[in-house]
Amino acid sequence: MTPEQYVQDKAARSGSSFYYAFLFLPPPRRAAITAFYAFCREVDDVVDEVADPSVAGAKLAWWRDEVARAYAGNPGHPVMKALMPRTADYGITADHLNAIIDGCLTDLQQTRFLDYPALQRYCHLVAGVVGEVAANIFGRSQDATVQYAHQLGQAMQLTNIIRDVGDDARRGRIYLPVNELQRFEVKAHEILKREKPWGYSERFTALMKFQAERAHATYDAALKLLPEADRNAQKPGLMMANIYRSLLRDIESQGFQVLHQRTSLTPLRKLWLATLTQLRGR
């Protein structure tokens, strides 16, 4: 299997909404974003699939060393072999990749976030930086497009956090800020139980409505930052925004039943939303 086949398989098997947006890119940009996304998946999978934190930490340290080797001209992993020929063309730096690793390390070292500014820092590492790199790969002519992409990445991460409350609780993690749990009088143990009816309450619903409103506001703020000159090039990002926002609306319509189930869109619906975005340009 070639490095290019490896990253393509990694992206396709993930079932991610990102994959459907990639399909509309010209081949060179598609190859770059697929390799970059495969890198993100590799390091994120370390956190999600390795039960022992010390082993996961060692694996992330290996990835940091692999980034250094790759930028020194000696990539070893298929992902880095697929990515490195495209880094110069699209401004992908070692700092970008190391920031994403830092975000994954946060997952290992921290299971609570005191307030929203602390959560924002985490979202910057695992999603804002990803948005910036993606914007460069998609193509941009304006500096404001980077700001848009960073904000959009944060909005999608906030959506992920809402969707994954139950999955994260199963791993002992709560990404909803502690001071907001206190504000809405939701106890951590209620979330960690992940059961009906214990976790669900009017208090929990109010907390989740607050989280959803903030995510929607972040989407709106991001879209206002997108320069018209770059709108056409940034269609893949808009596709992802529409897919993720549709997911958020589905979660809202279901009454935030996120503790015992994980809401998702069908592949056909994701493709349909991506196609509509391609046709409408928004």
Description:
It is a single chain. The chain is an all-alpha fold. The chain has two domains: 109 residues, Farnesyl Diphosphate Synthase, CATH 1.10.600; 173 residues, Farnesyl Diphosphate Synthase. Helix content is 73%, strand content 0%. Helix 1 packs across helix 3, helix 3 packs antiparallel against helix 7 and helix 6 packs antiparallel against helix 7. The protein is globular. The model has no long low-confidence stretch (mean pLDDT 92).
What brief labels describe this structure?
Farnesyl Diphosphate Synthase; 2 domains; globular; about 280 residues; single chain; about 0% strand; mainly alpha
Question: Could you give a short description of this structure?
Answer:
The chain is an all-alpha fold and 282 residues long. Helices cover 73% and strands 0% of the residues.
| Overall spatial form | globular
Distance between the termini: 37 Å
- What proportion of the residues is helical, as a percent range? over 70%
Fill in the CATH topology of the largest domain: Farnesyl Diphosphate Synthase
CATH class of the largest domain: Mainly Alpha
Order of helices and strands: HHHHHHHHHHHHHH
Strand content: under 5%
pLDDT < 50 stretches: none
CATH superfamily descriptor of the largest domain: Farnesyl Diphosphate Synthase
Number of strands: 0
Question: Which helices and strands occur, and which strands form pairs?
Answer:
Elements: H1 3-14, H2 17-22, H3 27-49, H4 53-71, H5 78-90, H6 94-109, H7 116-138, H8 144-163, H9 165-170, H10 178-183, H11 188-193, H12 202-225, H13 235-253, H14 267-280
Helix pairs in contact: 1-3, 1-5, 3-5, 3-6, 3-7, 4-6, 6-7, 7-8, 8-12, 8-13, 12-13, 13-14
